[in-house]
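Field notebook, page 118. I keep forgetting to write these up properly, so this time I am using the form the group agreed on. The chain and the ligand, zinc ion, are recorded exactly as supplied. Prediction of the bound pose follows.
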Amino acid sequence: MEIWKEFSFEAAHRLPNVPPEHKCARLHGHSYRVRLTVRGELDPQLGWVVDFDTIREAFEPVRAQLDHYYLNEIEGLSNPTSELLARWIWARTKPRLPQLARVEVMETCTSGARYEGA
Ligand SMILES: Nc1nc2c(c(=O)[nH]1)N=C([C@H](O)[C@H](O)COP(=O)(O)OP(=O)(O)OP(=O)(O)O)CN2
Ligand SMILES: [Zn+2]
């Protein structure tokens, strides 16, 4: 079974590798949303896969590195596209949450990226 929990953080970024006339070459910000999906067996006694709070505890130190920062200044995020941000979050969260199955990053209401470890 899969369960998920959603988070949000505010951050600024620009995309350094797009043409200078591209809108994302300019500094701008997003209210990012992150959905973490965990896959596992249902505990018959507790009736859940993992406590939602376990997901929150695993992600919070990672979220704290992003919230209200300029993403381009963070190590490993010099080109902070949704795709690379999803991979960055996976690399830092998976060791803390081994059941993690999917990271989804929603940069706007209509755009996002999904990463499942490959
Ligand atoms: N594949 C990707 N394309 C784009 C990314 C990205 O990370 N991966 N990022 C951007 C920009 O950061 C931009 O801020 C978001 O793009 P977009 O969805 O075009 O944003 P809009 O709010 O302008 O979109 P609407 O068309 O108004 O829905 C660009 N591309
Ligand atoms: Zn953007």
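OBSERVATIONS:
- The helical segments are 52-66, 82-93.
- Residues 52-66 form the longest helix (15 residues).
FOLLOW-UP: compare against the apo run.
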